[in-house]
Every structure is written in C-alpha cells, then in structure tokens.
Amino acid sequence: MGGGGGGETRTPAAFPPRKKDRLPRGSVAHERSLEHQKKGASSSCPSVRSNKSPLQMGTPVQPQKSLDSPLNMVTSVQRSESLDSRSSPCGSGVVGSGSGAAPFDICIRDDKCSIKLNRSLLELNREKRRERELYKEVAPLQYLRPGMVLLKKFLKHDDQVNIIKCCQRLGVGSGGFYTPGYKDGAKLNLRMMCLGKDWDPNSSSYGDTRQFDGAHPPNIPEEFGKIVQDSIEASNEFLKQNARAAKAIEEVPALSPDICIVNFYTSSGRLGLHQDKDETEPSIDKGLPVVSFSLGDTAEFLYGDGRDVDKASKVDLESGDVLIFGGKSRMILHGVSRIKPNTAPKWLTDETNLRPGRLNLTFRQY
C-alpha cells in the first residue's frame, strides 16, 4: 500500500498534523496469392491473426455467481480465473487452498466495452466535505477499555486509496488472497493474505511459506509500518492528556510489526469470537498490541472477555478507522458479526473500484 510515506506524522483531528508491393494481374504469383487468400492463412504464418477474440476461441466462461453467498465463495474465484488472471498487473501464479483457484482480486476490473462516467471534482469535494462535517461531533479518539483505543478516521483519504491499491497488487500475485480452510473442509467466510509471515489456520501457527502451495508471503510495505507507529504515538498522547493511566506506555506498548494478516469480507462475511494468541510468548506477555486498519464497508465489531455474543460489546469500525488493543486487552475475544452493505465512502470506491465489502489489515509482532 502506498499511503503513509514521508515525514509527516499522522494524527487525528484533535492533534496537530502531520505499405506492400502489388503483383501484376494475371501473373502466376498473383493467382497463387488469390488462391492462398481463399484457403486461408497457413498455420506457419505468424503475421496472420484470427478474427476471433481469445474468449470466443476458448471455452465460454460461465456466468459468475454472486460473491455474497458463502457457498459460492470458492467457486466464484475459480470461475473468474480466465478474466482476472489475464488482467492482473502482477502476473498470475495459482493461488488458492490447493483447489487451483485463481487469485482473488479485491477490486472490480473495468469493462473496456463499457463507458464509465466519472463524477465531477466538485461533487467529490462536496462529499468529502460532508463527511468531515459528519464527524465533527465524533471524538477522534475513543477509550474503549484499558489498552484498547479507537482512532476514528485516522487514515487519510490518500492513505486509504494507496492501501487498497497496494493490497490489490499484492493480492493477485504469488502469496496473495485465497479462501482459508480446514482439513475437514470447513472454510472461513472471508479471503485472506498474509504479509511478513504466513499463518496456517490448521496448525494455528506461523511459517515462512504457505503449506498448500509453498508461496512466500509478500513483505509488509514500509509505509504501513509508519502508519502503525503514528497510530500508537497518537494513542499514547491521547491517554496522557486524558490521564487514563499513570504510565500510558504500559497501556499501548510500542510495536515493530513483522506480521500483517489482510482479510477481505464480502457483504456476507463474518468472523466468530476468537483470540489472537499465536504470536510468541514474549510478544503476548509484553502486551504488544494488535493494530487494525478498516477500509470499505463498515463492520460491526464485537469484543469482550467471554464467548457469549449477546454479552459482547459492539462498536462500528468504519473506513479509515484504526483500532488498537494491547496491554491488558491484548487477549480479548473479538470478532465481526456483520458487514453493513453500501456504507463505504463513494469517493473511495470510485477511486479504487474496491468490491463491495470490507478490507481489514491487522498488524502484530511475532
């Protein structure tokens, strides 16, 4: 993802910024040339092209089913292979849970035969202005519980666009998005890509390569790490100003992320209550935080100390939000109960072609 570079520190609104020769008629050569044209080009002639497109010459692509249905999550990726893999800017390479599925593209490819009417700059700026006005009364940082802070709209507009574009490029390449599953055939209701280290849901452990295809996870872009650091600094400054803790650094310890799990939830996506507990003991014992970026549609996020969903606390994570939980909240149970459709900022989907759904990045230190 490209956002976050440069020396400016990101802070919420509450803090300061950051031609050919002709043959004579009647000649033998001319007659042979006409005969050749009638019969068609020889297969040994590389300069003659077929009038048929690659899609007409090959097996017709079956209509793709909606991505919203959990039952269609794997098959929809397989059926889109002939289109998505050809248009990938990063090359293909088979990615998927051992099923030969094509890489999943989090962005919708533009149909070259269609005409897309771009909205005017005036309209886009008006929408962004309305968005800023809407959040004037929302606290830029929210203290949810000890060690858990929510930074509202912390990711700037350019950050969000660049993060999505970067994840799209990495996601269609080797080690990119796939549907994680278990040996018993169960599938997680999302697409996943790991950066830095691979996380295997079957063994609940990290490794340097993926088990089903041997792919190496892409590296974490430096810009991502910069945004993570900025968010932690902003959180600690917020805690100090509000005197929530005598030592704010104990509330949200410093983090050097070497793992990032990127999940894409379609409109039907969800994730049950769980703990992030597969990092090393020192990392967990020190309470090194998990830092979560949200982009696209809003997610209803659950968190708490027990597994009773009805008793869990809820908070909406909107596009641009950064959630941090570490210290005393490092081992909280958390999950995503639902994705709220059509809640992504229109300017963001216009600029990125992000599919309907939510893109989530969670950073940890192994």
Cα-atom Rg, whole angstroms?
A: 25 Å
Q: How many β strands by DSSP?
A: 13
Q: What does the largest sheet look like?
A: 7 strands, antiparallel
Number of helices: 10
Shape: globular
Straight-line N-to-C gap: 21 Å
Spatial sequence of strands, sheet with the most strands: 1-2-11-8-13-6-3
Give the overall average pLDDT.
77
Low-pLDDT runs: 1-9, 11-100
Helices and strands, in N-to-C order? HHHHHEEHEEEHHEEHEEEEEHE
- Secondary-structure-based class equals alpha+beta
Which bin fits the share of residues in helices? 25-40%
Strand content: 15-25%
Explain how this protein is built.
- It is a single chain.
- This protein has 366 residues and is an alpha+beta fold.
- Helix content is 25%, strand content 19%.
- A hairpin with an 8-residue loop joins β9 and β10.
- The longest helix is centred in the middle third of the chain and has 20 residues, at 222-241.
- The radius of gyration is 25 Å and the shape is globular.
- The two termini are 21 Å apart.
- Residues 1-9 and 11-100 have low confidence and may be disordered.
Secondary structure elements and their pairing?
Layout: H1 28-39, H2 54-57, H3 73-79, H4 81-84, H5 121-134, E1 141-145, E2 148-151, H6 157-171, E3 191-195, E4 198-200, E5 205-207, H7 222-241, H8 248-251, E6 259-265, E7 271-274, H9 281-285, E8 290-296, E9 298-304, E10 313-317, E11 322-325, E12 333-340, H10 346-352, E13 358-364
Antiparallel strand pairs: 1-2, 2-11, 3-6, 4-5, 6-13, 7-12, 8-11, 8-13, 9-10, 9-12
